Amino acid sequence: MIELENVSKTFTLHNQGAAVIEVLTDVSFSIKPGECVALTGASGAGKSTLMRMIYGNYKAQSGAIKVGGVDLVTAAPRQIIQLRREHLGYVSQFLRVVPRVPTLDVVAEPLLALGTPEDQAKARAATLLSDLNIPQGLWGLSPTTFSGGEQQRVNIARGFAHTYPAMLLDEPTASLDPKNREVVLQLIEQAKARGAAIAGIFHDAAARDRVCDREIDVTCFTPVAAA
Amino acid sequence: MRDTALLSVRGLAKHYGAHIGCTDVTFDLFPGEVMGIVGESGSGKSTLLNCLAGHLDPDHGEVFFDTRAEGLRDTIQMSEPGRRMLGRTDWAFVHQHARDGLRMGVSAGGNVGERLMAVGARNYADIRTQAEDWLQRVEIDTTRIDDRPTTFSGGMQQRLQIARNLVTGPRLVFMDEPTGGLDVSVQARLLDLLRGLVRNMGLSAIIVTHDLAVVRLLADRLMVMKSGRVVEAGLTDQVLDDPQHPYTQLLVSSVLQV
Fold first, then answer.
1. What are the chain B neighbours of A77 within 8 Å (beta carbons)?
2. Could you tell me which of B48, B30, B29 has the C-alpha nearest to residue B39?
3. How far apart are CA B157 and CA B163, in angstroms?
4. Which of A15, A88, A98 to mutate to test the interface with B (most CBs of B within 10 A)?
5. How much is the pLDDT for B2?
6. Average pLDDT, chain B
7. Residue B217 pLDDT > 90, yes or no?
8. How far apart are CA B152 and CA B149, in angstroms?
9. Quick one: pLDDT at residue B56?
10. pLDDT tens digit string along A118-148?
11. pLDDT higher for B255 or B42?
12. Average pLDDT of chain A?
């Protein structure tokens, strides 16, 4: 479902003397449906960079990144948008929303974008929010004023609203209490059970051991000169 | 996925004497897509928008629009009445200053109804009902329907301008700094409104702005302009998170973090 072939990434900082930073080189791996793979490596090794390349918001210099048959390195913006809408979900560490939009709508939005009827989309959003212990009294408010942990749970609810066949999870259990952490791990297990291919960054070793089938150490893709 | 572009622009250029307004602009906009054009003042983004919308005559290039009746037509070669008809039906233009897009001496309801009448609506009761419906959609109290826009706040005027533009169900909306000059809480409300309208009506839109936060929330795609040329184009979050061109890197790194 997710396939990377000889992918490399460099950043060129034009306004800092055109410094060229080689971050990753010759990345090749694939993730099958129903499989959850942990990306590991020390901070700065390029885990998040790799994940953003798979999502398409970082541009790879060479190679191919295929998700559901679409190559994100060469695809047109509208193909990537369609891929993200239907096939590729991403739970980032930060919630980015239009201010003023109620939490329930924020969570239902990925489903509405797919054309799901509003009542069904909102029902699904309500289920996720109550599973993740967001008090119902907050659903009508914008999440911009919520605590960090609440925002993260809203972000997770939004990320799991649609049953994407491929998912990227950036520290989904960070800063969660044990009860909510358990809910998130169950969501990940359910996604795997329905056949989603998942790549994740988990600093929480116990969570990683529980949901991940194998680990890929990103350090082995770090260019030798930079290491 | 449909492969016919709604708007297809090839080699568009506009010069002001020896000065380049915009040059060598080529892109396709597909149905349902929202494209942002960013760049600093004087980068040519408004010139480009006005050339696309038929408000300025470009010196070179073609602007093909997928018309309902006749398929792809070059709007630059089109007759003036033909282009004006497009401007009243399939196209809409939201100006930065609402007073440029509204008739200030006519009531709010009249501003919305006028566009309907321009495309042939004649039943007064229907027109008024539609005007009321649109005032509600843009969150203007319908008791204000007979008031003139001069009595409205800046944010209300902008929302009224949007209602006036969208009432005829256009397929392509041009917006020039739609949130410029509004205070931030009003901007947020307008952004939310625009996003909902774009999704529910399946609109395509081209939004000129210098506000990167606005394009991140509204636009699927982004074009970055500098000195009249497009220096970078792509998926909005890719251009903002991993800018490739020196100018885009400078632009993105210059934004104050809140």
1. 220-221, 234-236
2. B48
3. 10
4. A98
5. 58
6. 90
7. no
8. 5
9. 92
10. 999 999 999 999 999 999 999 999 998 898 8
11. B42
12. 92
Tokens found for residue B73: 């037509």
Task: Compute the distance between CA of residue A67 and CA of residue B256 in angstroms, rounded to an integer.
Answer: 35
Greatest extent of chain A over all pairs of C-alpha atoms, in Å: 55
The answer to whether A70 contacts chain B (CB < 8 Å) is no
Contact call for B242 and A58, based on CB within 8 A: yes
Task: Answer yes or no: is the ipTM higher than 0.95.
Answer: no
**Quick one: chain B helix, strand, coil %, rounded to 5?**
40, 25, 35
> What confidence score (pLDDT) does residue B3 get?
73
Contact B242 A112 (CB under 8 A): no
A18 alpha carbon, distance to own chain's centre = 30
CB pairs < 8 Å spanning A and B: 58
Buried b (16+ CB within 10 A) or exposed e, A16-53: eeeeeebbbbebebebeeebbbbbbbeeebbbbbbbbb
A15, A56, A80 member nearest B249 (Cβ): A15
Q: Identify all chain A residues contacting B236, using CB atoms and an 8 Å cutoff.
A: 77
Tens of pLDDT, residue by residue over B145-173, are 999 999 999 889 999 999 999 898 899 99
Interface residue of A7, A9, A14, A101 to substitute, partner B, most B CBs within 10 Å? A14
What amino acid is encoded at B100 in this protein?
Answer: D
